[in-house]
Amino acid sequence: ANLEAGVSTDKVTAMIRRESDHYTQRNPTSQRFAREAASHWHNGVPMHWMLDWSTPFPLFVADASGSTLTDVDGHKYDDFCLGDTGSMFGHSPAPVAAAIAEQARHGLTYMLPTEDVVEVGKLLTAKFGLPYWQVATTATDANRFVIRWCRGITKRNKILVFHGCYHGSCDDTFVRLKDGKPIHRPGLIGQVYDLTTHTKVVEFNDLPALETALKDRDVACVITEPALTNIGMVLPQPGYLEGLRQLTRKYGTLLVIDETHTISTGYGGYTRTHRLEPDFLTIGKPIAGGIPCSVYGCTAEMAAKMKEAETASGPGYSGMGTTLSANAMALKAMRANLEQVMTLAAYEHMLPLSERLARGIEAEIRKRNVPWHVSNVGARAEFVCAPERPRNGTEAQAAMHHKVELAIHLYLLNRGIIIAPFHNMTLVCPATTAAQVDHLIASVGACIDELQN
Ligand code: PMP
């Protein structure tokens, strides 16, 4: 029989067909809503990513709380996707829900600061270590603005990204490698100017390639996640992040660490856990418990240089900020989240449970001898349908088997389990239980049984 990723391609095809039919039968209300919505929404959804689940039609949600989601047909799900990190600390954490209700009676946005601003500044510095902060609305925005600051500070035009990176819909980062050459990320719509003019791209975990790219001293900043989490999962090899910091310092390039996903690592994110020394740190998605909000922090040295850049550019428009950024509601939610939700105690629950999840799925894989593996950064675990841990974006891309993954996703969904749609990512939140984790582990095992010859 033909095999893909160590499982039967015929059985994968059969599973996709069977589970798609099963999904359709199970979800009549979602199907009806999808049909009705198609009259007024482009492709039937308010945001086209909602189609990326590859289900016959989108699952419509009725309710979500903690680690559990309920659809409009009344099925309950163990949610390991958690809004692809936006709800990494659980759906509607009680302190955030209370803060939102409280602020709702006092106005939502005034383009003026509130008392919460004083407290949130202290909380961000206490949690992440960097002394100065700004708020934006999405991780995309935080990254865009930081890239602009880095160019303003260094007066260099170029930035550098790693092949397979994702930092949001931030134009400058849409560059990939193909046969050693920079190209536009495939699929971009309406891209009329050449992004490779100002963005260099090299493979992650390759210090010599990085040095070659930085040597001309024309790179304002390197922006990266400490482990690539948007192309499966690529972990840094021992010494790599230290080398990255040394080389960026050597060539006057600033280092931007995007913690949006790797906040899963532990309290204060990967940066604090592994004592990284970024010039700028960005984080969005879960920072205000699911209310649109992001932040970027910087060192005192960078803050001083931002002032110089402001003086140098003179009066006018900075090209940064959006009207609703740092609104009163976002600050209130962020304060509650930082004070009461993203706590040490939360991580003390999440980390061992994610470890249980990762080792549990690993054991199911080993028992059945499929050539797969599991990686995790703290509360974020990913099972990959390939034998070797990828060292870079190219290897990670080659390790993706979309059809196999689709079969698994549909199988799990029909059995009350949601994992991230784009790859096999699972998140554990403070409300996740051992029983939910064990249900996932057993279901992945049962799914592999069905896919094997
Ligand atoms: N940075 C990273 C590392 C991300 O994974 C993402 C989203 N997946 C973003 C930034 C962008 O987040 P947003 O879509 O909320 O702007």
UniProtKB/TrEMBL annotation:
Listed InterPro entries: Aminotrans_3, PyrdxlP-dep_Trfase, PyrdxlP-dep_Trfase_major, PyrdxlP-dep_Trfase_small
Gene Ontology molecular function, alphabetical: transaminase activity
Pfam family, any one: Aminotran_3
Cofactor(s) in the UniProt record: pyridoxal 5'-phosphate
SUPFAM superfamilies, sorted: PLP-dependent transferases (SSF53383)
Record carries keyword Disulfide bond: no
Record's keyword annotation contains Transferase: yes
Keywords: Aminotransferase, Pyridoxal phosphate, Transferase
Superkingdom to which the source organism belongs: Bacteria
Family of this protein: Belongs to the class-III pyridoxal-phosphate-dependent aminotransferase family.
Protein's name according to its UniProt entry: Aspartate aminotransferase family protein
Protein species of origin: Dongia soli
